[in-house]
Amino acid sequence: MKKSFSILVTMIVIGTFPVFSATPEGIPDFEWMNDVGAKTFPKSDKVFYVNEDGAVGDAVVDCTEAIQKTIDRCAAAGGGKVTFHPGIYLSGSVFVKSNVNFEVPKGTTLIGSQNITDYKKISTRVAGIEMVWPSALINVIGQKNAAISGSGVINGRGKIFWDKYWNMRKEYDPKGLRWIVDYDCERPQGIIVSDCENVTVKDIVLYQPGFWSLHILYSTHVTVDGVIISNNIEGRGPSTDGVDIDSSSKILVQNSNINCNDDNFCLKAGRDADGLRVNRPTEYVVIRDCVAGHGDGLFTCGSETSGGIRNIVAYNLRGVGTKYGLRFKSTVQRGGVIENIYLYNIAMDGVRDPFVVDLNWHPTYSTSLLPKGYNPDSIPVHWKKMLIPVDPKVGTPKFRNIFFRNISATGAATCIKASGIETGTIDNFSFKQVSFEGKNAGAISWAKNWTFADFTVKASEQTQLILTDNINVKP
């Protein structure tokens, strides 16, 4: 007798996309901006249905093997489109190959297995550390000219993994192990694009992965277009970031809408000693015409900054009820230079903290210390990586040359929270046509050489910015 299975898909979308000019006036026009995104897309004249290889869309039969067989058959034939008849398909991790367009069409839902053993373990990077970890539900690894497309739904059904994490936190936190629990708690991502070139992720709807939603790692020429991500159903999903661009280059993200429980659109480049060893930047990235709802960062740089983040242009963005807006975070053992960031035409409404800089972010998570009673010779390899000390001379990150134009925020709790450190000031931030309105003005400390033109902060309670330990910062 078949088990019955019901699935409820609820779309959480913040209204409609704002209407943006095709060629916005005043947006930077660097030559490299013409070279971002995928330059090729798989030809779809050959169509392969997973149903031909035994996949059944009844939400009960495990279709992993059948789906993978169809992908392999398509790739062996020189490429084409892998697609589904309407239905709900249960799967563990599958691996998309070069010249394959993996389509989840309208009327189709791909649901993730809730058994962690159905996600093959691979060597990858997890939150800035290279280690062995379960693969994602959909993987594009070491491929060229591939795509994930379609207006169907990909549902990771991650709550079982979220619950696992929260239960582990109850065990780990009292032991002084907050810094490692995220790495010990194995949770599958929604989609990973790793070590790839010319990959497109377009129009899909992605729900509730066990961990990050869409991770772009060690890749170049990737396009994310028209993607909807929502992770707020059935409880709070920890670390369910939206789009994470990680030590990758020439990336285009556009026309996307994200509700999640961590950073919405995020740039990363490695953590601590392991990230400094890899030393690979995130660079040449354009993010445009996107919306963030619930989440921890409309636009975030960090906290993994070790390889550096540079040459980024983000414009025509909207945040509605997001916890943080424009967010820059790192720590003193992470290192990296974050520079040449251009943020233009951004509107935030009801964003609690619209502008945040924090160089001492989340110490209990960011600082790795082995508690007494543990033998350093018998701990796991990824623990040892996390515990490698970093020389303060290379561990202090540098944030500089960041430009804000036509930025507005209303309904904030605190307009500005910007804090460098004595050994790492935040330098050369430039504000023009920027206005913040909220309850508290906020504070700026350990900043240097900031410029302001047509800049206003209107606050109802703490009305004046608190300025401490700054050099040439006069709003």
Secondary structure layout:
Blueprint: E1 47-49, E2 58-62, H1 64-76, E3 80-83, E4 87-91, E5 94-96, E6 100-103, E7 108-112, E8 121-126, E9 129-134, E10 138-141, E11 144-149, E12 153-155, H2 159-172, H3 178-184, E13 191-194, E14 197-202, E15 205-207, E16 214-217, E17 220-225, E18 228-230, E19 243-246, E20 249-254, E21 257-259, E22 265-268, H4 272-278, E23 282-292, E24 299-301, E25 309-320, E26 324-329, E27 337-349, E28 353-358, H5 363-366, H6 381-386, H7 392-395, E29 398-419, E30 426-445, E31 447-462, E32 466-468, E33 471-473
Description:
12% of the residues lie in helices and 45% in strands. With 475 residues, it is mostly beta strands. The chain has a single domain (89-473), classed as Single-stranded right-handed beta-helix, Pectin lyase-like (Pectate Lyase C-like, 3 Solenoid). It has a 31-stranded parallel β-sheet that branches. Helix 2 (159-172) packs antiparallel against helix 3.
